Amino acid sequence: MKIKISKAERAFDVFNVLFMFCMITICLYPFIYVLFGSLSNASELMRVRGLLWRPAGFSLDGYKEVLKNKDIYTGLGNSLYFILVGTTLSIVVGCLLAFVLSRPYLRYKSVIMKFMLVTMFFHGGLIPTFLVVKGIGLYDSRWSIILLTMLSTYNVIVLKSAFDGVPASIEESARIDGAGSMTVLWKLIVPLSKAAIAVQILFYAVATWNSWFNAMIYLKDRAKFPIQLILREILVDNQSSGASGAAIEDKVGFSDVIKYTTVIVTITPILCVYPFLQKHFVKGVMIGAVKG
Length: 292
What we know:
Blueprint: H1 7-38, H2 42-47, H3 61-67, H4 70-102, H5 109-121, H6 126-135, H7 142-148, H8 153-164, H9 168-176, H10 181-189, H11 194-210, H12 213-218, H13 227-237, H14 251-271, H15 274-285
Helix pairs in contact: 1-14, 3-14, 4-8, 4-11, 4-13, 9-10, 11-15, 13-14
């Protein structure tokens, strides 16, 4: 049976489509502007007034200047190391802690949870943390970046909620067959919580990729700097080598091109991760949102 749609419902649908199109344009245009700006000629970009709907005199000078900086590749290697090692440790430790907290037979669970929640609102501060890092010999070590952000209370709570959703009968059956706690966790609980873990990987990876402040505080060897700290120097201090070359007509315009280019170089790698985790993302972030 064909459902008849009234004029009011059709008008409402048209309004929704137009409204969402406007919202998508508003949200997407800043990225488009930065992308076109990074592909523009410096002198042509300086003459643009208002919106930018195409590259102003197509040019790859900005990318050439940024990518010929050798520190970029060193920073990329360091960032990948921080993401791979840091995210792996974060997921492993987070799963272990969330599994323990999700077990109903854990004693003093409420007390432990309260102590963990305190860390979400209060922390020791920058100077005490710096003194601790230096005191235990982690200053100017990559481990200072990895260990300081290895565990997030919020992410552990999300994982705990996901583990709570796994039926207790599954663990009971495995225990009867002789499975230990590690077997229950890694072969039963974790595979059944892939959506939540995928979201945690995305959260940790994005946070690690975007982080530069801890590296600025705790690292002094440039060979250990992540990509964000290298790009920050280019973005803020305009320390790109060759920025005053003869091919560049306007240094001010080229400075803007460099800034746009650094933004694109920064966000492009992490954007490539989203398609692989997108199918788990919505389901994972909704875990724990509804109590039942």
